[in-house]
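Human: We require from you a protein record containing the residue sequence and its fold in token form, and nothing else.

Assistant:
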Amino acid sequence: MANIKSQKKRIRQNEKRRLRNKSIKSDLKTAVKKVRLAEGEEAAEMFRAAQKKIDKAVTKGVLHPRTAARKKSRLAKQLQSN
């Protein structure tokens, strides 16, 4: 454990952020999985929901914008092939 007051605060902040990021990432993975498993009209609806979650992850700073673009692109490509 750190001795410096600012470092103790930084540790607390990092832990809060880690838990928040973990939650967002988990939610995102679930949404993507649902898109991959869904079929037909349901898949398109799930895709829109997943896109929204991916964009939200970017705004929160959990994902890099290019990573998000790549994920959305690959999902869309997979959706078109089915």
